[in-house]
């Protein structure tokens, strides 16, 4: 984390967007390496200028996504004021959403559309909060509207965490009354964790209904994360989602981002 703070403070001001994204990917991988978290990713459907719609389990999700597909995240306004984390988020293209303000929401929609128009990725967590990773909550369709209005693809992005023996891991969960310290301790108590990130075919066309797209994204994410269909009760399936195997060290991505995305 100290390395990230130094990088953002000293190198970012001298860097363009392309270099910043490469640095963000590099730093996220270093953080995951330090936590012994290996990333297995299927990035076939990640393309510049897309909105990544992902399920939300932990603060670790942000590093997993950035290690594979560096993106501008949409976050609640309160994060801006968090010590250190808020400063880092502000300088890493985070778009802050003030809940309950229609006027502010319109401005945020314009900001998201502008980022997508520059062929950069935007990531949203439409559940609005975290779960333990064994089920999905309702998806708030309004967060998807800016991409649809701009004619940009919506890419369902499934996140899941697994123990080395193939069992789903609850260690990274950051929900309920679990504190940041407890979550970090749970992660560090594991010798190794596997984070799987699976992208699904893009959704959304001109004039697409946001609620229909949100429901389709939720269904695609449930499949990608090996969860029960959204219409069934929460459960813990035994089989992990399909992902390319990796013999690389932790965070060695077996499915690298397309070259044009890596340069974006």
Question: Main traits of this protein?
Answer:
9 helices; disordered C terminus; alpha/beta; 7-stranded mixed β-sheet; about 260 residues; Glycerol-3-phosphate (1)-acyltransferase; 7 strands
Please outline the helices and strands.
Elements: H1 2-10, H2 17-34, E1 37-42, E2 51-54, H3 60-68, E3 72-76, H4 85-90, E4 95-97, H5 102-117, E5 122-124, H6 145-149, E6 154-162, H7 180-188, E7 193-199, H8 210-224, H9 259-262
Parallel strand pairs: 1-7, 2-5, 2-6, 3-4, 3-5
Antiparallel strand pairs: 6-7
What is the gist of this entry?
The chain is of the alpha/beta class and 264 residues long.
Number of domains: 1
Q: Determine the strand fraction and express it as a percent band.
A: 5-15%
CATH architecture: 3-Layer(aba) Sandwich
Strand order of the largest sheet: 1-7-6-2-5-3-4
How would you describe the shape? globular
Please give the count of helices.
9
Order of helices and strands: HHEEHEHEHEHEHEHH
Main sheet attributes: strand count, strand direction, barrel closure: 7 strands, mixed
Secondary structure category: alpha/beta
Report the radius of gyration as a whole number of Å.
Answer: 17 Å
Mean pLDDT across every amino acid position: 83
Give the class-level CATH name: Alpha Beta
| Cα-to-Cα separation, first versus last residue | 24 Å
Low-confidence runs of at least 5 consecutive residues: 233-239, 244-264
CATH-assigned fold name? Glycerol-3-phosphate (1)-acyltransferase
The level of helicity is: 25-40%
User: Quick one: how many beta strands?
Assistant: 7
């Amino acid at each position: 984390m100290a390395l990230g703070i130094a990088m953002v403070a000293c190198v970012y001001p001298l860097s363009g967007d392309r270099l910043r994204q490469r640095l963000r990917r590099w730093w996220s991988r270093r953080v995951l390496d330090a936590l012994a978290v290996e990333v297995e990713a299927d990035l076939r459907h990640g393309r510049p200028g897309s909105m990544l719609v992902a399920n939300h389990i932990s603060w670790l999700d942000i590093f997993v996504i950035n290690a594979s597909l560096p993106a501008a995240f949409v976050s609640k306004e309160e994060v801006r004021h968090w010590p250190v984390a808020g400063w880092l988020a502000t300088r890493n293209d985070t778009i802050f959403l003030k809940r309950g303000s229609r006027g502010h929401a319109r401005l945020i929609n314009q900001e998201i559309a502008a980022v997508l128009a520059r062929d950069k990725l935007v990531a949203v967590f439409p559940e609005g909060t975290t779960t333990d990773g064994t089920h999905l909550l309702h998806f708030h369709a309004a967060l998807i509207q800016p991409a649809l209005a701009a004619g940009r693809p919506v890419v369902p992005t499934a996140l899941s965490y697994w123990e080395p023996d193939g069992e789903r891991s609850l260690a990274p969960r950051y929900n309920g009354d679990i504190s940041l310290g407890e979550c970090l301790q749970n992660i560090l108590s594991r010798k190794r964790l596997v984070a799987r990130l699976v992208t699904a075919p893009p959704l959304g066309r001109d004039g697409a209904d946001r609620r229909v797209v949100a429901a389709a994204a939720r269904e695609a994410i449930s499949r990608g994360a090996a969860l029960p269909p959204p219409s069934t009760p929460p459960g813990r399936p035994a089989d992990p989602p399909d992902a390319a195997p990796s013999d690389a060290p932790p965070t060695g991505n077996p499915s690298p981002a397309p070259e044009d995305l890596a340069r974006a």
